Amino acid sequence: MSHFTTALRAATAAALMGSLAYLGTATANADPTGAASDVNTLAGSVSKGYGLNNCTAQTITSGELAALSCGQNPDAAGPALAKYILFATPDDMNGSFKASIKDETLTACGDSGQSPTTWRQGSAGATAGQVACGTYQGAAEIIWTTDAKNVLSYIRAGNSDVPALYQWWRTNG
């Protein structure tokens, strides 16, 4: 084999290995918290008092596009913590909703009836998603979906007062 052929093969092999190494780097450097545009989209769906200034992007799992975790709401009557998740599909969101309420001690959501139930937004009265109210490990929780946005949301109080947290959610959620 000529030196030219050997050099050509070596250059081809080096180029191929370099592109594979680059491909591996691109995959390894993918943001575990999702694309910035998805995080920003999700930030537009958080409850009053929350935003990117007091919520942190979280590592996402299969089916999720973005997740935000938030601490105590600035409103003293607000939740002690909250979590918001943007899903790729309605099926992923609905499956996560069902999984998230399975260990809850479910109660009525105000005058909306026993959990889980549906909730409505605006004066048109169209169903906006599902909602569940209850307690988990002694703390009140409200978990809901916003179907038009594929968002699952969760707020948790520092106490067991489900009616108070539900009322806060109706005003600020």
TrEMBL record:
It comes from the Bacteria. Residues 1-30 form the signal peptide. Keywords: Signal. This is Serine/threonine-protein kinase PknH. It comes from Mycobacterium pseudokansasii.
